[in-house]
Amino acid sequence: MTKANNFQRIRELNYLQKAVLGGALLERMLPNYSLFSEATGFGDAAVFRSALNVCWEKILLPKSKISLEKQIEKIEPNVPELSDFDMFGTYPAIDTATALLGMLHGLMAKDDQEFLNISKISQASVARFIEYQLTVEGEVADNKSVREHPLMQYEMDVLAELIDFVEQMGRITSENVKELKQLAISDGQTNIGIAI
């Protein structure tokens, strides 16, 4: 499954399908923020969890009177500044925050491009992690070695599997959303391969 293929397939999904796919990818990214927060004492991972729960609720109950703006206001002070932390974990934490804010903006503006961006952010997060690992190990971190790395291959396979599931969902219900969320975290690791 090639990367372009996955992104092309996402573009062909409808608005709600893109939204639930974005949510599923965020389920895989969220623990990266929690681990960063635990390690540094910065930020409140519960705010992120709660905001993602609100996104799911909004997808399932579009008419509900949930304030997405309030969620954005809560998240923003919890986004780490790269310059404040001397550790790699800051990057995936920022990526998670960026993707989550994108999800909220997408739902507010009914802009499904934001949902597509989540898969790009997730993949970029994986690429950066691989580059970091290869560099630490003294390997060459070029495009080819990143693209062919098992973790990147795995990220693309998981994305393809989630797209397969979303394409088959039919009407989006709390039942099949629950199954999708389960599928997203069934391997017990985040998008960058950290055990959760």
UniProtKB/TrEMBL annotation:
Recorded protein name is DUF416 family protein
Please give the organism.
Pseudoalteromonas lipolytica
